[in-house]
Specification:
6-stranded mixed beta sheet; globular; Rossmann fold
Length: 242
């Protein structure tokens, strides 16, 4: 098996100090390999979003280490960390966060342009990524000309454009109907099958069934982990995330 692309080791995140301190993550260790999609489940307040933010370098752990592609995030200053996020990671959120005045291709190209790539080359990369995801028909459309599912698929393309090999998705289907949500997860699954490491936060067992592994959090701790399940009921029984 290839070396893990994402490694969290004994990660703890405490908010506040003294009597008001809240432990959002408590000694969490996790590895994600290239080509692997890992889902995180748990009740509200269990630490799912905190785990996603720490894994993606949006928040720093109080203790423990996070490494992406062999690079320990704690060793990086703010500028280098921002550069690593731009070049190596992609984020997909429940709100699509597409810029209304830009076409799909322009939205996908934007991270590359912000990183200094010439506009023409960035948009060539963007169209290539859209084509890989069977979204070329959307390249010249504006967000208000797309359905919610189409917008979210474009957001995934934006998260994967360029050399990014780690995609983090926080409830990416929460604003979509069940059929459209399944299509979005199918796209995410296909990208991971192509070698991307994926981390998916979800409260839906049927969505977690797309993952290779499911990690269950409770009170900031990993309480169970299971392989992908063919049926949603298997996940609920295995982890009892309710």
């Amino acid at each position: 098996m290839t070396a893990p692309h994402v490694v969290l080791t004994d990660v703890t995140r405490v908010h506040g100090e003294g009597e008001t301190a809240v432990t959002a993550l408590d000694a969490v260790s996790l590895q994600i390999h290239p080509g692997e999609l890992v889902a995180v489940m748990g009740p509200s307040g269990s630490g799912k979003s905190t785990l996603l933010n720490v894994a993606g370098g949006l928040d720093r752990p109080t203790s423990g280490t996070v490494s992406i592609g062999g690079q320990e995030l704690g060793s990086l200053g703010p500028r280098d960390l921002a550069r690593l996020r731009r070049r190596r990671m992609g984020f997909v959120f429940q709100d699509y966060n597409l810029i209304p005045s830009l076409t799909a291709a322009e939205n996908v190209a934007l991270p590359l342009e912000l990183d200094g790539t010439r506009a023409r080359l960035a948009r060539r990369h963007a169209r290539h990524t859209l084509d890989l995801m069977d979204l070329m028909e959307l390249s010249d459309r504006y967000p208000d000309q797309m359905s919610g599912g189409q917008q979210q698929r474009v957001a995934i393309a934006r998260a994967l454009v360029g050399s990014r090999r780690f995609v983090l998705a926080d409830e990416p289907t929460g604003a979509l109907d069940s059929h459209t949500g399944e299509e979005v997860l199918r796209v995410l699954r296909e990208r991971c099958d192509d070698g991307v490491a994926g981390l998916l936060v979800t409260h839906e067992a049927r969505h977690a069934a797309w993952a290779d592994r499911v990690v269950f959090l409770r009170d900031g701790r990993v309480v169970d982990s299971t392989g992908g399940a063919d049926r949603a009921e298997d996940l609920l029984v295995a982890g009892d995330p309710r």
